[in-house]
Amino acid sequence: MLITGGRLRDRDGLWDIEVRDGLVASLTPARREPEGADAAADTRVGDDVVAAEGRLVVPQFVENHLHLDYAHTAGRPRDNESGTLFEGIEIWAERKAAGLNRREEVRANALAAAREAVSHGVGFIRTQVDVTDPDLTAFTALVELREEIRDWCHLQLVAFPQNGMVAYPGGAELVERAVREGADVVGGIPHLEPTREDGVAALGRVFDLAERYGVLVDVHCDEIDDAHSRFVEVMAAETQRRSLQGRVTVSHAVAMAYYGPGYLSRLLPKLVAAQLGFAVNPNENLHLQGRGFGAPTPRGVAPVRTLTEWGLPVAFGQDSMADPWYPLGVGDLLRVLDSGLHVAHLLTPEYLARALDFITDNPARNLALDDYGIAEGRPASLLVLDAPDDETAVREKAEILLSVHRGREVFRRRPAETRWSV
Ligand code: FE2
Predict the structure, then answer these.
(1) Counting C-beta atoms within 10 Å of the first and last residue's C-beta, which end of the chain has fewer, N or C?
(2) Same domain, 18 and 97
């Protein structure tokens, strides 16, 4: 495949990108300039040649925080009336106790959700998988799915104890079992454990497993409207102590939005030293947090701008696709990015020019994808967006005209056509 006249985010001019044997075989300056910004919007030149005509060619998007095993379960066994995180967790436990999580259904729902995300330009997904289930039903289903879809989507599995490592009997052992049975990442949920001390102990076990089995870490951390929830500092300390810098992701980090300036100023340098990454889910936390506060309602989203200004990689994720926590969600990262930029006050020229970092390079770093990005010799996992730059891609929520995963075409799409009658 040859993609001609593409615009790249980190280089001037237009480029021809040759894809061969799954890799970007060559990257050369384009032979012709496009005929203006409105050049014929047709990527279907031929099977092997795609005319990008000045459009942006970017690496496939990376979804770094999703729960595929929960997808499409909203309302069963019941709706979340309060809209809170903790009612969602109760409903999920009821669902498991009622035997509603059958392996085949989990697999089918997760596959449909993965396809939905991929249709929006995602090529890499880190999914959390609930392992607080003695049968590891969802986990075994998703291990199968990881294999089934590997030609068109890279899937990372997090052994996630939704009902706790301490609070759920045998929770820590189940996490370890899932890690032994092939999880890529070890997860946790310290703010759900019975006491602060239990949460710290649970984090200790998470990091023990990371060391023992060489897996990455991604913890649901401080997802609560409580300034006293301070597990992120424990994560930073454990990361430093065990020299796991660059291998640890903090998910949600909602409580950071409530920390006072004195504590924050002491905390932030520790997060930088530990090289923590952040996975923030703006839509879900806008929906779940700040309940019962009255007006003005707190936003309940981690302080993304502050983290970014400190040089910490922040990535936006979808988290939920029609599950007990959040009724919407289609895995469209451009839509999530739009929300994230708004809630974090990032609609400035500087941030808009680099907006796609939040759904490309930053989450790729959280997934530790070493060969991510468009460069000669790297796997060709890329998109053609119907926009010339980041800002336009966000403003217009650009169509994705072509998606390629490791050299394999995933889909092509023609831009929607509007026939004006006025
Ligand atoms: Fe989550």
Answers:
(1) C
(2) no
